[in-house]
Amino acid sequence: MRSLVVIPARGGSKGIPHKNIKLLNGKPLIHYTIEVARTLFNDEDICVSTEDEFIIKVVEEIGLKVPFKRPLSLATDHSSTYDVLLHALHHYENIQGAYDTIILMQPTSPFRTATHLEEALALYQPAIEMVVSVFETAANPYFVLFEDDSKGFLVKSKSGQFNSRQECPKVWQYNGAIYIINAKALKKRSHLQFERVIKYEMEEANSIDLDTPLDWEFAEFLLQKK
């Protein structure tokens, strides 16, 4: 199976400025993801997709070449990950031939390990469209999540007669760490529209996604405490 690893790293982060290259416990955030990718894949199959010169510089400081600069049209707040993945796939396939899978690894998941990636890859089969990393969320729509009805009253997001959260069906939340995507399927439709998707479960502590300054402070705390 031939895989292209895509690490999307846009420069314009609002929640945490320059997030992808900000030092986390003394190391640029994006380096954590590159290091994991390099344990299983060669550099020529690892694509950092960015429009930002500073990110390119930080990536190339550790010897990983960034072969193109992402078009600005794909680096806005409204740009879709789907379009970014297709752009990277077309670039690499034009040069290096066809890929069977795309492995999307977001740089905001520093607690994802090589073992996680290896285990998720072992679940992939060509008959499915995607393996995605998840964790069991306590925010259960059968019990603690509510929506406004047509009259403005709160109703449960998902109906069911349960007396405790422990009785509810388990629900899973994407953690953004690992997406193993069937390349042929992606050329037909977005990965968000896939139906043949299986989960790879990770612990909540490994699923931390850095989006806010509080997330960052917590990640620093965990790394310092090992």
Automatic annotation (TrEMBL):
SUPFAM superfamilies assigned to the protein according to its UniProt record, in alphabetical order: Nucleotide-diphospho-sugar transferases
Pfam short name (any one): CTP_transf_3
Name by which UniProt lists this protein: Acylneuraminate cytidylyltransferase family protein
Annotated keywords: Nucleotidyltransferase, Transferase
Gene Ontology molecular-function annotations: nucleotidyltransferase activity
UniProt cross-references to Gene3D superfamilies, sorted A to Z: Spore Coat Polysaccharide Biosynthesis Protein SpsA, Chain A
Keyword hit for GTP-binding: no
InterPro entries named in the record: CMP-NeuNAc_synthase, Cytidylyl_trans, Nucleotide-diphossugar_trans
Organism superkingdom: Bacteria
Keyword Protein transport appears in the UniProt entry: no
